Amino acid sequence: MDYVGQLAKAPATDDEVRARWLHETLPMLWLEEYRASANRVINVMKVEAGGFCFGFDLVAELIALGELAVEPEPDDRTVFAWGRSRVPPAGRKHEDARLRGWPVAPEHRAEDRWDRGHFIGHSFGGVIDRAELNVFRQLRVVNRGWSPAGKRYRSMEKCAAATPGSFVFSRPVYEDHTAYPAKLEFGVLTADGLWVEEFSNV
Question: What is the C-alpha separation between 163 and 127, in angstroms, rounded?
Answer without folding.
Answer: 18
